[in-house]
TrEMBL record:
<comment type="subunit">
    <text>Homotetramer.</text>
</comment>
<dbReference type="InterPro" id="IPR051603">
    <property type="entry name" value="Zinc-ADH_QOR/CCCR"/>
</dbReference>
<dbReference type="GO" id="GO:0008270">
    <property type="term" value="F:zinc ion binding"/>
</dbReference>
<dbReference type="Pfam" id="PF13602">
    <property type="entry name" value="ADH_zinc_N_2"/>
</dbReference>
<dbReference type="GO" id="GO:0016491">
    <property type="term" value="F:oxidoreductase activity"/>
</dbReference>
<dbReference type="InterPro" id="IPR011032">
    <property type="entry name" value="GroES-like_sf"/>
</dbReference>
<keyword id="KW-0521">NADP</keyword>
<dbReference type="InterPro" id="IPR013154">
    <property type="entry name" value="ADH-like_N"/>
</dbReference>
<dbReference type="GO" id="GO:0003723">
    <property type="term" value="F:RNA binding"/>
</dbReference>
<dbReference type="InterPro" id="IPR002364">
    <property type="entry name" value="Quin_OxRdtase/zeta-crystal_CS"/>
</dbReference>
<keyword id="KW-0694">RNA-binding</keyword>
<feature type="domain" description="Enoyl reductase (ER)">
    <location>
        <begin position="10"/>
        <end position="326"/>
    </location>
</feature>
<dbReference type="InterPro" id="IPR036291">
    <property type="entry name" value="NAD(P)-bd_dom_sf"/>
</dbReference>
<dbReference type="GO" id="GO:0005737">
    <property type="term" value="C:cytoplasm"/>
</dbReference>
<keyword id="KW-0963">Cytoplasm</keyword>
<dbReference type="InterPro" id="IPR020843">
    <property type="entry name" value="ER"/>
</dbReference>
<dbReference type="Pfam" id="PF08240">
    <property type="entry name" value="ADH_N"/>
</dbReference>
Length: 328
């Protein structure tokens, strides 16, 4: 099969078109003909860092985690998928799991679900990693109807999904952005926008919660922005973050009695731990999408499999708005 492989780690020009062996079907798995995949931050980190990142595969490697495609073969023990099913998932591109930058991917059946019927393959491929991350974070933060919820980075990949899911769960949703395009998207997706460049945390906490703070904060920016989340949170509030690779003073969280949830959605793939949770979440998301409550935002530029390097550059540029998708 045709695949884009990397023989060494580094810049976006390391991708090479190659003809490699098509995966053999095995028990508990399905063979999927890939129609599209998308770029996530972790894909670019693996490409750049290689062995310096513990979850990277050894070269030569096929990267790419997200995909949408059609089931071509079903392994022993798999009863809930059939040949011809249109599916989506996040099932490879790290450690020992070959990725989706290829014509076919061998996917653990626990990690995938039937594709939402009202989305194209191109659209569905944008969702798995970011949507699972958003769902898990809000679920662990025990989101409830009527709560005031703040999403940091609501125009980003994870953030724009978290924002929509928070609305679906019945919350009053607010979100930070840093420019006119970002603010417009946040508003279009149904949240009240906050310009973090012109409004202080104290100002927007007073404006939107009368000084009480937000019940739930989904921080897709993370890092030192967690200190802003601590400041913006209500007493005994819940904070979910996707970026916590730093040393941080937790005093602010302590004096408010905050609960901090670190979301690292790759754990099921890395450790073969509760993989069925991802398939279950994707199935729930498909229902939410088919009911009209969630949609992916896609970058205006599209790329072919051979243009994966350009797709990585587009993602890294920060010039796009929405997920960068690669059609296979």
């Amino acid at each position: 099969m045709k695949a884009m492989i990397i023989n060494q780690f580094g810049d976006s020009n390391v991708f090479t078109l190659a003809d490699i062996a098509k995966p053999d079907i095995k028990a508990g798995h399905v063979l999927v003909q890939v129609a599209a995949t998308s770029v996530n931050a972790v894909d670019t980190m693996i490409r750049q860092m290689g062995p310096d990142l513990p979850l990277s595969p050894a070269a030569p490697a096929v990267l790419g985690m997200d995909f949408a495609g059609t089931v071509e073969a079903v392994g022993e023990g798999v009863s809930h998928f059939a040949v011809g099913d249109e599916v989506y998932g996040c099932a490879g591109g790290l450690t020992h799991l070959p990725g989706s930058l290829a014509e076919y991917i061998l996917a653990d059946a626990k990690l995938i679900a039937l594709k939402p019927k009202n989305l194209s393959m191109h659209e569905a491929a944008a969702l798995p990693l970011v949507a699972i991350t958003a769902y898990e974070g809000l679920d662990r933060a025990q989101i409830k109807p009527g709560q005031n919820v703040l999403v940091h980075g609501g125009s980003g990949g994870v953030g724009h999904i978290a924002l929509q899911l928070a609305r679906y769960f019945g919350a009053n949703v607010f979100s930070t952005g840093g420019g006119d395009k970002q603010m417009a998207l946040i508003e279009a997706l149904g949240a009240s926008s906050i310009n973090y460049k012109t409004e202080t945390v104290a100002d927007y906490v007073q404006k939107h919660t009368q000084g009480a703070g937000f019940d739930v904060i989904f921080d897709s920016v993370g890092g030192t922005n967690l200190l802003n989340s601590f400041e913006a949170a209500a007493l005994n509030g819940q904070i979910a973050t996707t970026v916590s690779l730093l040393e941080l003073d937790l005093s602010g969280a302590h004096f408010k009695g905050l609960s901090l949830h670190v979301v690292f959605m790759l754990i099921p793939m890395l450790h073969d731990h509760k993989r069925e949770a991802h398939g279950n979440i994707l199935a729930k998301l498909a229902d939410i999408i088919e009911a009209g409550h969630l949609r992916p935002v896609l970058d205006e530029q599209t790329f072919s499999l051979e243009e994966v390097g350009k797709a990585h550059d587009r993602f890294a540029s920060g010039q796009g708005l929405g997920k960068v998708v690669i059609d296979v």
